Structure formats: C-alpha cells, structure tokens
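batch job 7 of whatever, protein = Phosphatidylserine decarboxylase proenzyme
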Amino acid sequence: MKMRDTFIKPMHPEGRRFVAIFAAISLVLFLIWDPLGWVGLGLTVWCYYFFRDPQRTTPTRAGLIISPADGVISLIEPAVPPAELGMSDAPLTRVSVFMNVFNCHVNRAPIGGRISAIAYRPGKFLNASLDKASEDNERNSLCIDMADGRQIAVVQIAGLVARRIVCFVTPGTEIATGGRFGLIRFGSRLDVYLPDGVAPLVSIGQTMVAGETVLADLTSDEPRRSGRTG
C-alpha cells in the first residue's frame, strides 16, 4: 500500500460541495488575515476528513451481521422497531452505534437482502448518545428482508450536530452486506434491530468499523456478551 493511500482516503461525493465552500471561505479569510486563513484551511481539511469514504474488507460468511457504522456501541437493549416500518411490535434487541464528528459517516448495510421499506420521520436534534434520541430525534428507518425470510431494521438518527440524513437506496433495492446505503452529516447514531433470538456479539463501549466488525451471527447460539469495554 502506498503511503499516500494510508493518509489520503477517497471522499464521498456528498462532501464535495462542503469542501468547496470551506475552501472558498478559507481564501477569503487569507485575504483578511493570514492566521484566520490557516484556521479556515484546517477546517477545510477536517471537512474532507469527515466525508472520507475508505474501502472496507467485509466478511463474506453467510449469516454474519456487520456494523453499519463507525463509532462506539452506546446502548444494547430490548426495544420495539419503529412503527412506521410495519414490523412486529414485539421487542427486539437494539444495538446502537454512536458516531462522533471524527468518525467516517458513510453507513453500510449490516447484512445483504432486499430493502422492503424505508420511512423518514422528522424530529428533534437531541444528543444522539441519549436513549430517548431513538424516539424523539429525526430518523430514517430501513427494513431489510433477508434470504431466509427474516427481517432486520436499521435506523439512521440525526444528532445534536447532524442536521441532514442522506439515504442512497429505495424500496426494492437489493443490497450486499457492507454495501453503502446512506450518510449522516456531522455526528449521529445508527440503531440495528436484530432478528428475534439473535444475540449481539459486542459490548457497550466497543469500537466498531462499518462494513467490517461483526455485530452478531445468525448461525451462532452463543449467549449475549456481558460487560462493558473500558
């Protein structure tokens, strides 16, 4: 791997407009006062870094559920999937991945299948790490039908800083495990509702890599892991 590839990651097209705006402002700031220009340049570099879209090596074994987002596991608890998806009203295990402003914010499918439903709901912009953010915040919910007939729900949740949820797919789309399906700008959270009887193989506080870290295994009878990463 070239050193350039280590430090310079591809940028998602969603970020081009923002980087251009930051760069233009930086030029104006340089004309006003050099130190301000350097601050603007630093923010431009950060903006590019925020919208990075690195390649990921996704596990290919059947049955693996992969993290849909970079970040840290903030919650693992039983919860009913969003009503707007029309899924069962029985509680499922919800695993929440919190993304800060330094994480890569491209969202990836936790498992392959067919997107059977997408539902957007406006809401508040509370801190995405809070439990009530799942209910009160702006969100975009997806239901993925797997080959075996089971379903998994993925919910993009806007946060205190995030003000724009972007979804790249539509109902009927066939998506592969680790495939890009969306992006949330400037800090947010992803909730995954595991199928009934499937236990998470992660712990609260664990760092996740979208498209790579195994979240759960449909074929495993291993019990839910206890504890908290310190």
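notes: The domain at 64-217 is CATH 2.70.70 (Glucose Permease (Domain IIA)).
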